[in-house]
Amino acid sequence: MGTISHRKFIRWLPDEASEPTSTLVLTSRDNRFVDIRVLLNDDGCMDSRCKGSTSIDCLDWAIGGTVSSTINDSGIRRAKFSHWINSRSKDADGVADEGDMYEQADGTTLEKGSMVNPETGQDTAYEESWLDIEVAVNDDKKSCFVAKLDGKDCRGMVVMLDGLCQGVMRRGDHVAAERWEKKNGAWTRSVQVGQGDLVCESLITDEEQFAVGHKIMSKEGTWQIVEAY
């Protein structure tokens, strides 16, 4: 079972809650995730620079990695997101963020923790509201794929889950991120920033051909399917 997570707001305490981004996290059954956050304009719409720009000015954050959870004595779940790719850091190894997850009466999850506020550079307490949608395994048709690129100086991860697909890649100072959405039976690319040859389009075009171990060649190197179900 995978999870699609839409962020509803972020609050840097003691400020008021707001949502300055379009934030979507796709998490696979084996707990690999791609988290892409792109800035919204003053009208609350996605900035046009997020749709085909080599610049990453509109990219707030893009992360690829794995998530694990523990339950404390009070029954509260703590999630740890271990980064493997990070648009804000060349060296993601050892980087992680953690938050305590509180289920709310309206079906959302309130995450509480502390991390660096990018606007101030200071470690700050925060709250994030998430709407999580669980995606069940379909025995008749594969609904989730994860592809990884693990090169000498380049890393990439793509997660396709149900009707959504996201990818992030980093080579040195160069970062690329994409988001695809399937609507009315057709896939469209809603986010494309940075420079890099992601394989989202290959996955959504030929998904039924892929199995674990399958390789996809790109200009950046060889991607390998590590999950397919």
UniProtKB/TrEMBL annotation:
Gene3D superfamilies for this protein: Protein HRI1, N-terminal domain
Location relative to the cell: Cytoplasm; Nucleus
Keywords, comma-separated and alphabetical: Cytoplasm, Nucleus
UniProt protein name: Protein HRI1
UniProt superkingdom: Eukaryota
GO terms for cellular component: cytoplasm; nucleus
Pfam short name (any one): HRI1
Entry annotated with the keyword Nucleus: yes
Family recorded in the similarity comment: Belongs to the HRI1 family.
